[in-house]
Amino acid sequence: MKTVQSISVVEDVAVISLHDLQADISAVADIFAKLAEAGVDVDMISQTPPHRNIPDISFTVSGEDMGRVMAVSAKLREQNPNLKLSVSGGHCKISVFGEAMRGCPGVAGRVFAAVAKTHADIIMITTSEVDISLLVAKEDMENTVDAIEKEFA
Fold first, then answer.
1. Low-confidence ranges of the chain (pLDDT < 50)
2. Cβ neighbours of residue 87 under 8 Å, at least 6 residues apart?
3. CATH 3.40.50.150 for the 6-11+90-151 domain, yes or no
C-alpha cells in the first residue's frame, strides 16, 4: 500500500485567528456553537499553548463564509472587548492522505522537507494519523503540490 494515497486541494480558504481568548473550553465551545448557528462550516482548527492562561485559536472557513464569520465575531467582541481578530483570505488547503501513514514514522518530515524546497508560505498545519493538511498562499499551491507528489511518486 502506498504511504500517500491522495493529495487534494481546496481553494478560496480563509484563516481566522482569535487572540486573547480566555483559557476556558466552555468559551471556545460557545464560539464554535455560534459559528455553527450562523451556518459557518469550520475546517482546520489549531490552538496555541496558553501563555499567561491566554491561548490563540485559528481556524479556516471557505471564502463564502467570511460575511457570516464577521457577523459572529462582532457579537463575540461585544461579549469580550479584549478579543482580537485577524483574518486572511484567498488561501488553499492541501491535504495529504494515506491510511498507511498511521504508525509510519517520518511521513510528516518528508512532506515538510518537500515543501521547504519550494519556499512556500505555510500559514497553518493540522494533522491526524492519516492526514496532513497545509494552508498555503494561493500562489504557492501548484509548486507545493508538485513537490509533495514528486516526494511520494
1. none
2. 14, 15, 16, 17, 66, 69, 70
3. no
